[in-house]
Records
---
Amino acid sequence: MSTMEIRKRGEPVLEQTRTAAMAAMAPPVDVYENTQELLLVADLPGVAKDGVRIELEKGLLTIEGRRPTPTVGEQVAGEYRIADFQRVFSVPPGIEATKIDAELSGGVLRVHLPKSEGVKPRRIEVRAS
Amino acid sequence: MLTRFSDFDPTFSLFDELRRRMERVWEDFDEGSTPSLQAATVWPKVNLYDGGASFVLTADVPGLAEKDLQVTLHDGALTIAGERATKAPEGYAVHRQERGSVKFTRSLALPCKVDAENTTASVKDGVLMLTLRKAPEAQPRAIAIRAS
């Protein structure tokens, strides 16, 4: 299986996405693979469980995280922008779309993309004749 | 142009300044393309809010819990230290790794004296939030205007 093609950070998001998403930030992502699945890990600080949306359509996996603006007072210094997260990946064939599973813990999202039986490696036993 | 006050020779300090500015140009140019390098330069990034009676400092620390962070307050300097290791899970091949592993210590000068006893820290959804209560002498105070 080839590696996932991933949109580069800073590259504009797809045209069909909402205009609000234009201001979204691309989170840093790790992509791992074993014989059973592809695993995608993304940093989404400040995003709660109900603020995450994951969608697979036409081979494109979209991850979105809504980040609320803190209401703690007037900002006096800032090193980062509070914005929603969004990133789009093209998913290789051979992924069981219905079995995609995700968990969010401490601002880190993990998306498990299980491989379908056809692409899993298989050992062929040799029979003695 | 600002130069650091510790520079003893203005000629060299100008060279230093030039070098720093050139580095900044590359940083701007790099923005977005090398998140792990960027993350390594300043981590965690912080925001500071003034809530009247207290300052609120937030820092993005995805993947870290309370036990992974040390926060100390000493003489108006706030220090945040910790470590984040992003290793590939056992048995997995790595295709892409943008989430950097960092060991960090950041010291920040606070804008005014704060009451260390009444400082609270919490981590929620990967964001560290520190509430730093301003010292009594730094609290905003309304001055009543007397009619004469």
---
Amino acid sequence: MGHIDTKSLLTRGFNGNSPELLKRADEAYCDFVSDARNILMYAQFQNIGQLGAGELDAAAKATGNLPNSPEAIKGVVMKVPEIATYFRVKRTLQESYWQRIAESYGMKASEFEQALNEADKTGPGSVTWDPNFVYPAYATVDIHIQPGGYTGKTLGALTYDYGTKIFFGGAGDADSLHHSMADKTATPKDGVVKRVMEVGCSIGQMACGLKKRFPDAEVWGTDIGAPMVRYAHWRTIQQGLDVHYAQMPAEDLDFPDNHFDVVTAHLLFHEIPVPVIKRVLNEAKRVLRPGGVFVLWDFFSAKNRSGGTNFMGLMDACDNGEPYAPGFVTCDVEALMEQAGFTLRSHDPQELGRAGRVGDKPV
Amino acid sequence: MSKQTPDERAKKLSEGLDYVKELPGFERGHPHYFKDPMIDHLLEIVLQLGAEMWIIRDRQMVTEYLLATEGKVTPEMIEAFKPTPEFREKMKEERRTYTRRVYQSLYEGIGPAGEAAFVSGVLKAR
């Protein structure tokens, strides 16, 4: 196969920074799914959460025990037709868009794989990954029930890219959410920013935002998934940005001590088990220089959530490929940051997108 | 890269984590939500039909637009079509009206819907 030209590969061009789906019908299908999620899910999130929490409270009063296993919770709440409908709609729409996106790009699977192979060897920026890497079991989950998750399929990151566009219901188009968070990312108190890293960078949206904000800094994106860093590099090349990507578990980084000024993790911590969270915090502390800053963007803690939101979160864990999220929201991550040696500058933002949890490595 | 062998590194990365395989959601599963799974299947079919119907409406709108502006239409023109911001907004409004009309009965009786947006619906939820 000869050189893969992006223009001939993407016959329908780009949608923001994401490759457009290869058929008009696929785009229309996903437009419908995105709006259906907004209208039939997000608009009903509060209602269904409150309804479910009310049913669970009533069951607790009647029996003296608050149902806490997934089976027990479902046994109580799914008797309400609107709740069962909500979760049926959610699961079906989620499965539908993953399947349709993968089918669309799959029409040119070998060409996309060739494009990734070629990008491996070109710049700007760079990518390193290990074809012999053995994934720990925790990293093999079908996160968000995407078949293959973040690690299992060569083109999984390409599918993930368009999938997150749908997931965010249009709010993240053209990487706007990620770039706004990059713009808000805290910096060291001395203002020196020469090296920046995002751990768990997935497809590099945040890393690209950080590069735009700190154009003179050396910016790295690392992720345990080879499909993620390879596609992130290809995607970053399309934007003409100089970012370095490497396949590395966030808890076992191949960087020297005191190397970075800023390390950030965006929506990583709710996708890893609590013991790994502790290791990641220790590793971030190690690679940050004294005075460096760790910025954590993720869900707010269970203690700051309503019962309805926690109920919805538990259901998401069970049936939407989020097995580690309940551990994260209940682990008191601020205390874990302090145990790792960070001095907390800001706490639970209670609203993703407003501020992160920020920890300074003491000078 | 790491000096450990891939297997050694995976073993190290997995230490103390055997429990994760038992967590709800570790396996994707095939859940159903109604006592009678056939209701789950019917809802799935209804959603798929809604999506397929929208594909036809989308194609019809694009076809009419191209005929009105270009005087002709071909399958290639439809595939290459990039709507103007105004036409994209018109299609979005049409799609949202259609979706609300078709599925409005699903949640009747549980109170007014909130804002139909990810950020306000989920990220700011309390």
---
Amino acid sequence: MKVAVLLAGVADPRHPLTLRSSRPPEIRRDNPLVFSPFDEAALELALKIRDGRRDTAITAIVAGGAESDALVRKAAAHRLDSVARLESEALAIWDVGATAHGLAEALRGLATRPDLVLIGREFGDFDDGALAPCLAAALGWPLFDLAQFARWEGDELILVRDGRSAEERLGLRPPWVASVTNDRRNRLRHPLMKNVMEARRRGFDVLTVAPVVPSATLKAVAPARERTRREPCRFLTGSVENQVAELAAYLQPWRALR
Amino acid sequence: MNGPVVALCPCRPGESLDVGPLRAAKTVAGEAGAPVAAILVEAADRQIEQARSEGDLVVWDVRHADLSPLDDAERRGPVFVEALKQSGLGDFRLAVLPAGHVGAALAAAIGKSFDAAVLGACAEIVLTAGGVEARRSTCGGRVEIVVAADGRCVVATRDASQRGPSRRVGEVRPLRLATPLPDRRPVERVGAAGRDRSVATARVVIAGGRGIGGDEGFDRLRDLAGCLDGAVGGSLPAVDAGWVPVSAQVGQSGQFVAPEVYVAVGVSGTPQHLAGVGAAARIVAINTDVDADIFRFADVGIVAAWRDVVPALVRRLRSSPEAFSPDERDP
């Protein structure tokens, strides 16, 4: 099984966001980067697949500029078969269509075609979940979205997710794209320190793709507007019993009909 | 371009229609004087009536001979594509879908088939001379961008503050399709995960966060949801912990919800979480931390442990006199 994991990283949500530029690549450069929970879930899912079958080969591609090199090494510390950075300047990362086509081109350029492409349900700071389906469409491959877990049953890889009415399991017949979401079973493990040190010494390829014609224009970038409120919060006071009674009265109009 | 604005509504049996795309399409079209239509696939009579009552639009009641309720976007996408073509709406300027992974998958299919720009989950959508301009939340809800595209566009809508029903009722046109669909995927369905009611269309959402601390707390939230005819959701940390299914995750990275009341229990109120809650929702916050950000956005707040409040609230609601009928609900 050949697995390609696409990773992007996001501005670390534990730090205030620095917004000095209206260019997404510069915004990315101006802020410390970490893997998002969905990047981590995608990478961990690939590692779980390899845990089950040692002949699994994992390629990780981190989309970004030179500021992303630390993320490339962080991925490499999991002893992947290959790691690379995809120069993202040509992708127009805020443009879903352009990014999907750029990623598809990068995947087509790999020495061997992956059987499975894993990508977080959101890819970086500028995707809200539209990218993975567009990537699958650009590749012409089927999509299994919101995968949460994977396991081997004999020679068959099973991808698992919670559906609306049942757990859904897909026996994989390559090639597939799977978007991966957060789940307690795919929290990213810690790499061994010796592998972290080796990853720091290891080189990696920088991939490039031809600039893609954008399907959209970025017209403005600004800090998010504060959510407006009608009035300040009305804190209920008195004993807890009194607060509960007041809240029950407030919620009375929405009480379920008997 | 003079084509219509089209709301695309995937329907699930037993659930209310998500009217977000419909109202967004009406609002966008109304401001530009463009025609507006809605395509409902495999809708129940009640859902058709909901769409029709929104008024001022043509509602296409689309059925496909080979589509089942369990079919996913891989098979629903081609139905929407064919419906757009056969209804004469293939020259659309803008197609509006619900936010979320189903809408995203359908957007990809429609974008590819019609060579339309996919703009993502947007608000403040307007038609321009040659296309569409819209605002999208990025960077975990901390940055907003404005994107524009010429030609056909596809958006998902996260804007719940759109034009409501009008006095006129819409016209319903049936459309029966039998075009070949892709083979069904060999997806096996096991057990009963995600049994909770969908948060996307609920009038009341009870959301738990990290502060709930475990499965038992979510059982109490389900009790409360039962009293309020509501649905239970959770923040990303609660989903990470396995206390609530990912299908009920509320936030920038999960479901967008636009309930009348949002009861946030043990939720800190990060921008990422609140980006998934419609601005018109009344927020009730229960949290032990008086400095939690959620209180900055709440209408009503209780500073206390959920264990002291939620079970007592459930008892109180269960023991109070007869519930109001829907017509009386006007707080």
